[in-house]
């Protein structure tokens, strides 16, 4: 049998990762098997094991593919833009990616709703927690910079403001996702809500230190 070209091997890997997204979303990571993924991909189990030695290695590759092209952090490093505007851009960019990338949306749904807390899934759970920690660190840094620059009140409770903003934006996103909306309609509905949440951080006494 002729050896596969690099392009053919990549096509097989992509088919396996596409299949993993479907199977993990349907069955959950714990109950999915390599045989299920092979069947969904239309390849042999040997082909799956030829690329990934076990289900967790496959799952991590699936996650890495979903986020490798994500320029999320670049939005927070724009020059000549205030800290609060950088934070705003990060939220909008991340939500836009979620709306427009089927792969990223499926993988996030797997990580948050279909990756059970079992020892078998520890590596994928750690990857999710690492991403959450990076987000928190970056957002807290931008909030503190906004306080230092005078964009936000000096007595703002930054930890509470971070939790408030994330809760409000994520909650609104969850509500919007229950509706039949195009990505453009979704972003148009989200943007004023995000701006209102940022205004609350500027003016709400409840978000000040006590």
TrEMBL record:
GO terms for molecular function: DNA-binding transcription factor activity; transcription cis-regulatory region binding. PROSITE patterns: HTH_TETR_2. InterPro entries: Homeodomain-like_sf, HTH-type_TetR-like_transc_reg, HTH_TetR, Tet_transcr_reg_TetR-rel_C_sf, Tscrpt_reg_MAATS_C. Residues 33-52 bind DNA. It holds the Pfam family TetR_N. Residues 10-70 form the HTH tetR-type domain. PANTHER family: HTH-TYPE TRANSCRIPTIONAL REGULATOR ACRR (PTHR30055:SF240), HTH-TYPE TRANSCRIPTIONAL REGULATOR RUTR (PTHR30055). This is Tetr bacterial regulatory protein hth signature. The lineage of its organism: Bacteria, Pseudomonadati, Verrucomicrobiota, Verrucomicrobiia, Verrucomicrobiales.
């Amino acid at each position: 049998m002729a050896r596969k070209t690099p392009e053919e091997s990549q096509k097989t890997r992509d088919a396996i990762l596409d299949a993993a997204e479907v199977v993990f979303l349907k069955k959950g990571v714990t109950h999915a098997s390599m045989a299920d993924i092979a069947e969904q991909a239309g390849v042999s189990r040997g082909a799956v094991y030829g690329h990934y030695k076990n289900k967790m290695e496959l799952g991590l590759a699936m996650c890495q593919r979903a986020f490798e092209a994500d320029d999320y952090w670049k939005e927070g490093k724009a020059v000549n833009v205030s800290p609060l505007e950088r934070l705003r851009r990060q939220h909008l960019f991340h939500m836009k990616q979620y709306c427009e990338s089927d792969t990223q949306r499926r993988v996030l749904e797997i990580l948050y709703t279909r990756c059970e807390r079992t020892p078998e899934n520890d590596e994928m759970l750690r990857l999710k927690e690492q991403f959450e920690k990076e987000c928190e660190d970056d957002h807290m840094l931008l909030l503190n910079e906004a306080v230092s620059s005078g964009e936000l009140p000096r007595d703002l409770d930054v930890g509470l403001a971070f939790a408030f903003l994330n809760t409000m934006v994520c909650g609104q996103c969850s509500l919007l996702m229950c509706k039949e909306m195009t990505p453009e309609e979704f972003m148009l509905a989200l943007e004023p809500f995000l701006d209102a949440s940022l205004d609350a951080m500027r003016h709400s006494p409840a978000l000040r230190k006590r």
